[in-house]
Design a protein that fits this description.
The complex is a heterodimer of chains A (888) and B (235).
Chain A lengths: L11 H14 L5 E6 L6 H14 L4 E5 L6 H7 L3 E2 L3 E5 L2 E5 L2 H7 L3 E4 L15 H10 L3 E7 L7 H8 L9 H6 L2 E4 L4 H9 L10 H7 L2 H29 L11 E6 L5 H15 L2 E8 L4 H20 L3 E6 L3 H11 L4 E5 L7 H4 L3 H8 L4 E5 L10 H7 L4 H21 L5 H19 L1 H19 L12 H49 L3 H16 L2 E8 L2 E7 L7 H13 L3 E2 L11 E6 L4 E8 L9 H68 L5 H33 L7 E3 L1 H11 L1 H4 L4 E4 L7 E3 L1 H18 L6 E8 L2 E7 L32 H11 L3 E6 L5 E8 L2
Parallel strand pairs in A: 1-7, 1-8, 2-3, 2-6, 6-7, 9-10, 9-12, 10-11, 12-13, 20-22
Antiparallel strand pairs in A: 4-5, 14-15, 14-18, 16-17, 17-18, 19-21, 22-23, 23-25, 24-25
Helix pairs in contact in A: 2-3, 11-12, 13-15, 17-18, 17-19, 18-19, 18-20, 19-20, 20-21, 20-23, 21-23, 23-24, 24-28, 25-27, 27-28
Chain B lengths: L11 E5 L3 H10 L6 E5 L2 H11 L3 E5 L7 H9 L6 E5 L4 H10 L3 E4 L4 H16 L6 E4 L2 E4 L4 E4 L2 E2 L4 H12 L4 E3 H8 L8 H15 L9 E4 L3 E4 L4
Parallel strand pairs in B: 1-2, 1-3, 3-4, 4-5
Antiparallel strand pairs in B: 6-7, 7-8, 8-9, 10-12, 11-12
Classes of the chains: A alpha/beta (888), B alpha/beta (235).
Chain lengths: 888, 235
């Protein structure tokens, strides 16, 4: 390290992290947690004391929810603070007081006091848990003071259970501890706490009295106290590290560790996950949780699907990166994942299977250790976990397949009958083949258990009916025992193989269906030209592949609107409110989530990293679907596909708008140039002429006076024409042009145009060729007169005065063609189309020219009539402009 | 103003406009010795002046500071048939029709030529002075004898259908004045036809073929695009 001045600077990553943290803090309220180790240590009291301090500092403090439990000290501190009235929720005949979240948000104080962070809300409230309420308050920019006991933190949940023997159901994600701006440890020596308990100063809810008694043992309290102190200390340590890191204080920073833990759906997974989280916390490491799905293990998956899903969600709430990998070999897949994600440590549980099983199959731990190479493998003890993985839950899923068993009995009976028929012609050992046939049939049709039963029954039946002596279970020839064993073993093996391959096929089919539905969606999305097409594709595809009702909501102004929905879905105000919540908080809400669960639909945000584009609402056919990991995964795949598609269209639109804007800028520049030129030039002549007349009238001859006046007059008229054109163009472009279509007489139209140009035509000859039988044509007479006037005006301007101009009309094939033709120089072929562009001007020697708007106006008007306008050079010189209008 | 109080027997013209420049310009332009000019700058002042002064012609701008010009027309029409010529920058046909339907006699879009304005004022004055229309209308080669229900073009009688004759008679009795489509339809065919302008167009077209020399360049029945028709006034 020669350049010691530089390498002590904080790394860019460290500064970025700090900047992000500060950015996140901006606009969000700060969370202060008053952490205790047991009820009664005085958390609420400490919180209120602090609140008073803030109040005396002139901060706006409101007690959003504080429960005094009738304690005198607490009550006296609470008096004098503003208290948000509690919401009374009727639930099963009981009135439960709850925090009125909306009232707090509406009141918007600087600091809100919310007691008991781990509280579970009464059903019917927006969130399931109070900590979710707190998060919403924080994101509204309100600081929150809250109280919580250490045992409520997710990652300590099982440790506390081990210490106290009391399983705490109300948990709070550790994340909250991480995001808390400040943690205040409220401490009281256990002896004092027990003293208080005896004096009846600790509030204990009645229903928990027994559990609490177990809880308040000196040993427990000491352990819990240590736990809370460690947690708070870890937090202090972390803050110090952050401080040192950003202030360039060198220290022994460990390289960024990455931990990996696998879940398998075993009852130990939860413990493994929590342990890994604690390890990761201690090491300041990122951690991953991965589930390896093996085709052969699909049976396994089906049994444990719910548990895997729950474990994955737990890992997610604890802050893990979560992934599912499909592979044939678990250890290889784990190592692959580890290498790909720079994992430094893999956490595995100690094997729990009996030792003899290891001869058949090497334990995962051993395989991992052998494959791990550079990666450390941590082996965690699992023995302490009670070995009763929710048997009550597992059983109902596997009801005994009685009909299948009956069928296997029938199969064996049938086989026996067949054997009886052919008994005379075959040796008994060959009859075994018939029973094997029955076993194979059972394996393919009835599943593994029934097939095993069939094998077993077959052995019995074979023994009883056909092995001499017949009709007894006695066996004369001991050789038959080999036959029995072979029959049974082959039966079991076949049934296992067949059922495995069947299950594998089922998994593959399931995957294929998912892949196909994703494929169809992406195909339809790619084909959809606009947002509407995309939304329809989303609704149709998701609706069909999940048999669900679907709605897509996009923001319109500051609220969400249903942009597309399945036929029988209409979202009421309440549903919209749930969708809105999901949109604002960028989290799933509604059915099957933990927020606003009473909604009819599940609402998933369609989000890209920087913003939320909309909401996907789904109502599945059956309730189980909401919890199914496959469906949730498929839904999130659908959602991200939809998001990408919508984003794509929006980006295209933005690009188009940018292009349009650019084109518009170019036009505006041209317009400004044109305006400054075309407005100023006549004004110069007018003011010049008038100025001369005013100042030197006496010196002028009558002729020159006349000439000046004529100039001023003509220029004023030109100016007026230009302003008129500008106004017309503006109206056309602003879309303010409303056609007043009425049946019009074409002859009258021609007459009006000629009359309007009466003075300009003067002595020039205009040939009008109109057939007598022209029908009335629906058009806006005024605007079409304007078209003819502009065309005639151009013809007058650009053709020599001695040559005549022709105007004609005819109706052919339901189209009215109006033509104005001159004998001027025409237009270069390449420019024939461009002459209808704005500010295009034919270079004419005399310079005067027009505004460059006349033909553009014509085009606008004609197109508003759904007609066409084009120009062509005449043979023999001159230009012909043809306007075609539909007659009907 | 130059001749505001010069003579009381000259026809009185009330100019209603809040633009000082326009007032000044009109004051000079109309200072031909034919009229006595009076000015009002607001709608209320105009209504008061119309009562006090009893002008022969009113020149009215639609964009007044205190009330809309169309409302001024309506209020005046409640009690007076004095010719009102609207001078306005509003060039949309709807605005014109609205003003004419409210009872205005003529409509000139700003900017306008002084010659044109003088001609319109003279026509309006003539109509205002002679209460009963002349029984015979004669212009160029067209002669309409209302007493005898006869129409002559170049001294040859022209056969008109009853509707065409009614139409021509209506135009003749309002010669020089713009009649909106709605007004004509209501008078000739009745209220039910107000929304069916094609009847009118067909009849005008037929009438022109019978009385005009070149129907595509009419000299008598002039079209005010989007507004209505006007029969040229006898100059």
């Amino acid at each position: 390290m020669t350049n010691n001045g530089d390498d002590k600077r904080p790394s860019p990553e460290a500064l970025l992290k700090l900047a992000q943290a500060e950015e996140q803090e901006e606009g969000r309220g700060k969370l202060k947690i008053f952490l205790g180790y047991a009820p009664g240590v005085g958390k609420t009291f400490a919180m209120l004391e602090e609140a008073w301090q803030r109040k005396l500092d002139e901060r706006d403090v409101v007690a959003a929810y504080v429960e005094s439990h009738g304690r005198f000290e607490t009550d006296s501190l609470l008096a004098g603070l503003e208290i948000t009235p509690k919401k009374q929720i009727e639930y099963m005949g009981v009135t439960l007081p709850e925090m009125d979240l909306d009232a707090v948000l509406a009141r918007k104080p600087q600091i809100a006091l919310v007691d008991e962070l781990a509280h579970t809300n009464a059903p019917g409230l927006r969130h399931e848990k109070r900590w979710q309420d707190v998060e919403e308050i924080l994101s509204a920019g309100i600081d929150v003071y809250t109280t919580v006991n250490i045992q409520h933190f997710e990652s300590l949940n099982d440790t506390v259970a081990q210490i106290t023997g009391v399983k705490v159901r109300e948990t709070v994600p550790d994340r909250l501890l991480d995001v808390a701006a400040e943690i205040k440890l409220v401490d009281l020596p256990p002896d004092d706490l027990l003293q208080r308990l005896h004096e009846g100063k600790v509030y204990i809810p009645q229903q928990a009295a027994v559990a609490m008694k177990k809880f308040f043992k000196p040993g427990n309290l000491i352990a819990l106290r240590e736990l809370s102190m460690r947690k708070a200390a870890a937090r202090v340590d972390e803050q110090m590290r952050a401080y040192m890191e950003t202030r360039s204080i060198a220290g022994p920073w460990p390289a960024a560790e990455q931990l990996l833990v696998c879940v398998s759906g075993s009852p130990y997974s939860e413990k493994l996950i929590r342990t890994t989280r604690r390890l990761a916390d201690d090491m300041k490491a990122h951690w991953h949780t991965v589930y390896i799905e093996t085709p052969g293990g699909s049976r396994h998956l089906r049994e444990n699907r719910e548990r895997v899903w729950r474990d994955m969600r737990l890992a997610e709430t604890l802050g893990a990166h979560v992934a599912t990998v499909t592979a044939t070999s678990v250890p290889h897949a784990v190592i692959d994942y580890a290498v790909k994600h720079n994992i430094t440590k893999i956490v595995v549980g100690k094997p729990t299977k009996p030792r003899w099983q290891e001869f058949l199959r090497q334990p995962l731990v051993d395989q991992l250790i052998r494959l791990s190479g550079q990666i450390d493998v941590y082996v965690v003890s699992l023995e302490t976990v009670e070995k009763k993985p929710e048997p009550a839950r597992a059983r109902p899923k596997h009801e005994a397949p009685w009909p299948e068993y009956l069928k296997s009995v029938a199969l064996v009976a049938a086989a026996t009958v067949v054997c009886e028929l052919v008994f005379r012609f075959l040796t008994p050992t060959n009859l075994v083949m018939i029973y094997l046939l029955a076993v194979v049939l059972a394996a393919t049709r009835l599943g593994r258990k029934a097939a095993t039963l069939t094998a077993f029954l077959s052995v019995l039946a074979f023994d009883f009916f056909f092995v001499p002596p017949r009709f007894t279970f006695a066996v004369a020839d001991t050789e038959y025992f080999l036959t029995f064993i072979a029959l049974f073993t082959v039966g079991v093996v076949i049934s296992t193989l067949v059922s495995q391959s069947r299950e594998r096929a089922e998994t593959i089919r399931g995957r294929e269906v998912q892949t196909a539905s994703l494929y169809y969606l992406s195909r339809d999305l790619a084909a959809a030209p606009d947002v509407k097409g995309i939304l329809d594709a989303i609704v149709r595809n998701i609706g069909e592949s999940l048999e669900a009702k679907v709605a897509v909501l996009l923001p319109e102004g500051d609220r969400l609107e249903t942009k597309a929905a399945s036929a029988d879905v209409s979202l009421h105000a309440k549903e919209l409110a749930v969708a809105d919540w999901a949109f604002r908080n960028r989290q799933p809400a509604g059915r099957g989530t933990e927020t606003l669960v009473s909604a009819d639909l599940l609402y998933l945000p369609l989000q890209t990293p920087p913003n939320v584009l909309g909401i996907l609402g789904v109502q599945l056919k059956d309730e189980a679907g909401y919890k199914s990991p496959e469906i949730r995964r498929l839904l999130s795949a659908f959602a991200s596909q939809a998001t990408l598609a919508i984003e794509r269209v929006q980006l295209v639109k933005q690009a188009e708008q940018a292009q349009l804007l650019q084109a518009r800028e170019g036009l505006e520049r041209a317009l400004l140039n044109s305006i400054s030129h075309d407005l100023r030039t006549p004004l110069v002549s007018i003011t010049g002429s008038l100025g001369t007349l005013r100042d030197k009238a006496y010196k002028l001859t009558p002729e020159s006076r006349r000439e000046l006046l004529d100039t001023a007059w003509e220029e004023a008229e030109r100016l007026n024409r230009f302003v008129g054109n500008l106004l017309d163009m503006t109206r056309l472009e602003a879309g303010a042009l409303k056609l007043k279509r009425e049946p019009c007489d074409v002859q009258d139209l021609a007459g009006c145009a000629l009359a309007a140009l009466d003075q300009r035509i003067g002595t020039r000859k205009v040939d009008v060729l109109l057939p007598d039988d022209l029908p009335l044509v629906r058009m806006d007479m005024v605007l079409m007169t304007q078209v003819l006037v502009n065309l005639l005006d151009n013809a007058l301007k650009y053709s020599p005065p001695e040559r005549n101009i022709e105007m004609s009309a005819r109706v052919e094939n339901g189209t009215l063609s109006l033509e104005v033709a001159d004998h001027g120089p025409g237009v270069p072929e390449a420019d024939l189309k461009r002459i209808f562009d704005k500010f295009y001007r034919i270079p004419v020697p005399e310079g005067a020219g027009g505004t460059g708007l006349g033909l553009a106006i014509c085009k606008g008007i004609v197109e508003a009539h759904h007609g066409k306008i084009r120009a062509e050079n005449r043979t023999g010189g001159g230009l012909r402009v043809i306007v075609s209008l539909p007659v009907k | 103003m130059p001749n505001e109080n010069k003579s009381t027997n000259l026809p009185r013209i009330l100019v209603v406009d809040d633009e000082a420049a326009i007032q000044r310009f009109l004051g000079t332009a109309l200072d031909t010795g034919e009229f006595s000019l009076h000015q009002a700058e607001t709608g209320h002042a105009a209504l008061a002046a119309a009562v006090a002064l009893k002008p022969e012609v009113i020149l009215l701008d639609l964009g007044l500071p205190d009330m809309d010009g169309v409302e001024v027309i309506r209020r005046i029409r409640e009690w007076s048939q004095v010719p009102i010529i609207v001078l306005s920058v509003r060039e949309r046909e709807d605005d014109k029709v609205q003003a004419l339907d409210a009872g205005a006699d003529d409509y000139l879009t700003k900017p306008f030529g002084v010659g044109e304005l003088l001609a319109r004022i003279r026509v309006a004055l003539r109509r205002s002075l002679q209460q009963a229309p002349e029984p015979v209308y004669r212009i160029d080669e067209l002669e309409v004898d209302l007493g005898r229900r006869r129409v002559l073009v170049r001294n040859a009688e022209v056969q008109l259908t009853p509707t065409e004759y009614d139409l021509l008679r209506l135009l003749v009795t309002h010669a020089g004045k713009v009649l909106t489509h709605g007004q004509i339809l209501k008078q000739i065919w009745g209220t039910a036809y107000v929304e069916q302008p094609h009847v009118l167009r067909v009849n005008i077209s037929n009438l022109r073929h019978k009385i005009e020399q070149d129907p595509s360049r009419p000299r008598y029945i002039l079209t005010e695009p989007g507004v209505g028709y006007r029969l040229r006034a006898v100059s």
